[in-house]
Write a structure and sequence with these properties.
This protein is of the alpha+beta class and 275 residues long. It has 5 helices and 12 strands.
Length: 275
């Protein structure tokens, strides 16, 4: 019995010692877990500050991390995702904008860096930023996942962040050398301005058309009056007068001739009686 037990134990020891540890040739794990990847993005942030109150940040969920990557690719040609975290400030009302400063090593003023933010409704927005040596500033109006993304030089990125009136617009306390990646303004305000400009242009066009019409009518009336006057003058040159009542031509010369003949006849009759 003892011999059988010893044989079993010996077999187990041999199996245990012969178990192979599966790993890459360099000793690193063959697959980096997605949780570790999300944690690495968070750890790239050395510190975080906000314009008022305090702030904390956590590792993002892996599914949200994938969303951020997709959104970053949709916005432009990505060079590198610098950092990503769930941001939680102490302020309860961020409707006027709260500027968040991400301290990230390796960032330089002039880098083509933008922030992607997941809003409460689940959609993403590309936010304006201020980029300096070692930090990126972004103004947010709500808080959740924020990804700081560096795009390749020359890549055009169009922010679509809705900016509230009176906001800091992502450029709070810029320093000499900072780069303001701010190529858009409040979409709502722009829409209103466009409408106002269109209305004003339409009104101006209408006024110009009216003025042109008035000028044409005035000039036409003057031309017509002048033509009529010229016609009357031309007609008068043919020794005819205009009737003061009707304005029709009045045969002055024949009438004068008839009156003259009548006068001559009367005078001749009187002379004959005297004789």
């Amino acid at each position: 019995m003892r011999k059988k037990l010893a044989a079993i134990i010996t077999c187990l020891l041999v199996l245990t010692m012969g178990t192979t540890v599966f790993a890459d040739a360099d000793g690193s794990p063959s697959v980096t877990s997605r949780d570790q990847e999300a944690l690495a993005y968070k750890n790239k942030i050395t510190s975080m500050e906000i314009s008022s109150g305090t702030v904390s940040y956590d590792t993002v969920e892996t599914s949200v991390m994938d969303e951020a990557k997709t959104q970053a690719d949709n916005a432009g040609s990505v060079d590198n995702i610098l950092a990503m975290a769930d941001v939680h400030p102490s302020v309860s009302d961020a409707s006027k904008g709260v500027t968040v400063t991400f301290r990230i090593s390796g960032v330089s003023a002039g880098d083509n860096v933008y922030a992607l933010h997941k809003k409460a409704d689940g959609t993403w927005e590309v936010c304006n930023t201020v980029v300096g040596d070692g930090y990126v500033k972004v103004t947010l109006y709500s808080f959740s996942t924020v990804a700081i993304v560096k795009y390749k030089a020359g890549t055009s990125v169009t922010p679509n962040q809705q900016i509230n009136n009176g906001s800091e617009n992502g450029s709070s306390d810029p320093k000499p050398g900072d780069t303001t990646n701010n190529t858009t303004t409040n979409n709502t305000n722009n829409g209103g301005n466009t409408t106002n400009n269109t209305t004003n242009n339409t009104a101006n066009t209408t006024n110009n058309t009216t003025n042109t019409t008035n000028s044409y009518n005035t000039n036409s009336g003057n031309s017509s009056a002048g033509s009529a006057a010229a016609a009357r003058t031309g007609t008068g040159s043919s020794s005819q007068k205009m009737s003061p009542k009707t304005g029709n031509d009045f045969p002055a010369i024949p009438v004068i001739a008839v009156l003259s003949l009548m006068g001559i006849a009367v005078c001749t009759g009187k002379a004959a009686k005297r004789a």
